[in-house]
Amino acid sequence: MTVRKVLRSGRPLLRQHTRPVQSTEWDSGHLHRLVEDMIETMREEDGVGLAAPQVQAGLRLFVYEITPNPRYPDLETEQPPRVLINPRITKRSASMVHEWEGCLSFPDLRARVPRHESVKVVAKDRDGEQISIPASGFEARVIQHELDHLEGRLLLDRVQDPETIMFSDEYQRFHNHTHGGSSSEPSS
Ligand code: NI
Predict the structure, then answer these.
(1) Regions of the chain with pLDDT less than 70
(2) Which residues contact residue 161 at a Cβ distance below 8 angstroms, ignoring those fewer than 6 apart?
(3) How far is the CA of 103 from the centre of ligand 1 (A)?
(4) 54 CA to middle of ligand 1, Å?
(5) How far is CA 48 from CA 77, 114, 174, in A?
(6) Is residue 64 within 8 Å of residue 35, measured between CB atoms?
(7) Model pTM above 0.85
(8) If you measure from the C-alpha of residue 186 to the centroid of ligand 1, how many angstroms do you get, rounded to a whole number?
């Protein structure tokens, strides 16, 4: 397994639509290596998800794994690694939730964006088996974020209030109320 370089915002590939993985590619060593490298890279970078275009592969697939790490210390849910190939959302809740997100393609930034509170996504797993995942809360947020990557959309495209775009350490100091953040500047 190899840790690959994660492209940062500004690289044109991140703005392109990906193409579906063909059935002929399923058993290829190329696809399996890509998936293994993506999981390794996500862990190395303390991400909770990674989409193929972020490692220069224009394919419709992403991985995610929800487990506390230095970038996301306060997660309420956990999810072992999942590989979603040719995913599509089949159901979206009407209700939206505005919450904080980061992205490995915007290192050190956080922003608050709206996402559907719950979604249902169907995809193939790494063995080519059909999977159907009902997700809510943070997991639904991760899935919607990674699906955006497959269509060339990035985190900041979704921001409604530009005042919520900030550096991660300042977010931790002043805006993360679940982890000791305070809402005002210290007076000294
Ligand atoms: Ni991202």
Answers:
(1) 178-188
(2) 112
(3) 4
(4) 8
(5) 12, 18, 23
(6) no
(7) yes
(8) 32
Q: Which residues are catalytic?
A: 146
CA distance 133 to 177: 30
Give the whole-number percent of the chain exceeding pLDDT 70: 94
Q: Average pLDDT over the chain, rounded to whole?
A: 92
In 3-state terms, what secondary structure has residue 81? strand
| Token couple for 31 | 């696809």
CA distance 156 to 179: 24
Answer for the pair 103, 142: CB distance below 8 angstroms, yes or no.
no
CA 187–ligand 1 middle distance (angstroms): 35
DSSP 27: T
Task: Quickly count: other Cβ atoms within 10 Å of residue 33's Cβ.
Answer: 12
DSSP lists the bridge partners of residue 103 as none
Residue showing tokens 């997100």: 101
